[in-house]
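Schema walkthrough. Field components (list of strings):
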Amino acid sequence: MPAASTENLLPDGVFAASLTPLSEDMSVDYQALAAHCRWLLEQGADGAALLGTTGEANSFGLRERIGLIEGVLEHGIPSHRLLVGTGCCAFPDTVALTRFAVESGAGGILMLPPFYYKPVSDEGLYRYFSLVVDQVKDSRLRIYLYHFPKLTGVPFSAALTERLALAFPDIVVGMKDSGGEWAHMKEVCERLPGFRLFAGTERYLADVLNIGGVGCISATANATVALAAEVYRRWRAGEDVSAAQAQLSAIRQAFEAGGFVPVLKQLFARWQQKPEWLQMRPPMAPLPESLIDGIAAEVERLGLRIAP
Amino acid sequence: MPAASTENLLPDGVFAASLTPLSEDMSVDYQALAAHCRWLLEQGADGAALLGTTGEANSFGLRERIGLIEGVLEHGIPSHRLLVGTGCCAFPDTVALTRFAVESGAGGILMLPPFYYKPVSDEGLYRYFSLVVDQVKDSRLRIYLYHFPKLTGVPFSAALTERLALAFPDIVVGMKDSGGEWAHMKEVCERLPGFRLFAGTERYLADVLNIGGVGCISATANATVALAAEVYRRWRAGEDVSAAQAQLSAIRQAFEAGGFVPVLKQLFARWQQKPEWLQMRPPMAPLPESLIDGIAAEVERLGLRIAP
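Field assembly_structure (string):
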């Protein structure tokens, strides 16, 4: 549907929350990152999410994050295929990074809540997001609320999500729901028809599509991308995806034996025979190779193949 | 003991984790902040902790935090009376801010762990702190680990604390323990004689002094400072402080009816008749005045008096 795809500029489908390849001095290797994004697109991803949790975003300072966006674009990745994480603890940082990403043509903004203070009231969070929208002041701004209470300690309640979506209907357009709770995804979709919900895991890909969601943005989609993209395309074509989704969910589950950043970086180092993947910023630290052995064997048994 | 106080440059006693007064545009009001620090010292505080949790540190960007340190020093607060919070999520930010604080002559550094990713291994945290010490590269660096698991989700286990203190004996010299768990404070003091533990609440002031700790760094000491300082001085003089400590603990508890930042800012706005105290950065939001009424009445009943 070429006509639809050029008219509808809002992202949907399968997005990998891209890993961030690093150089030996732990700076971002822009060329390797762009190469990985290109590889994800070739595998069938609808796009990549930069500066998400899996991209170690919060281990980079504001200037480094801006540099990362610039670096990827300079290496030829089309900006509209990128979702960019911009939510920091301090609103001036969030405003600066968001403005840069919007001006760079990003396909959408993933925005964490300010995640240090807790508990905070929905009123306080509403004020925060209102301030950010007001200060970014750009009609091209499209925010996907990034719900990840296990890491942030600051949930987007369904009530707050609704309040923000109604207050800023053309701006707060969706959510990446990494809460892992089906009831939350369902409530958000039911309260807000047309709200663009991405599951934070490909395990719920078909499920969210069935209730009006638009896709998934996932850490493990760095590896499962081809199969996840197949599920998405077949679902769009009206085919039965239950077997493919079951395989996808099983592979996803096998990755959950360790923290995704070290697990995926250590696996890509093997799969692509590139030891430079092993660089990660503390507090991330490599996991025992025996654990990685087990995951590698299990995902292969389940049918995952990554060509070198 | 003037001789001791000039020889011993390491901080001890009662530190208020200073509130950060803001202007109407939510920038830091340096003059008001310096005035508040001066007032705390006049009330008997041994010093002030800047850019802690109560100071809304994580609601300010890196440049704003550097500006805050500069601004306070320019307004005449002696640098050695200041502990400065410098722990960010990204190590380059932590390094830059720590270096600036050390070069400014701060009496010590309060360092949060990187607090987005969780769970993380003690090995990953050890690598993080090693990297920061290595990159700051300043023999004047004195770190107090800032243990506040309710907000960070990233505890300093006693084992990790010991590993860091033994690896960097002249640098990782102490802890602000805001965990609220007596067992943790006790274990750290027992494992590490000479380690400078500050309780994160004045409720444990006498208790930590009795097991080798050195004082407290507390949000509510913004208000309880005079009484807390009295407990500390009388304890140092070998007097019985049980009645004064009991009063101090009761007042502390009365403040716990709401989040400390809005509670204290709303109370200071009343006590000092300065509505500008009401400015706070989102996600902080003012609490209902009826709640503040109750706290104000209760702390007054318990004997707290703040002169306008």
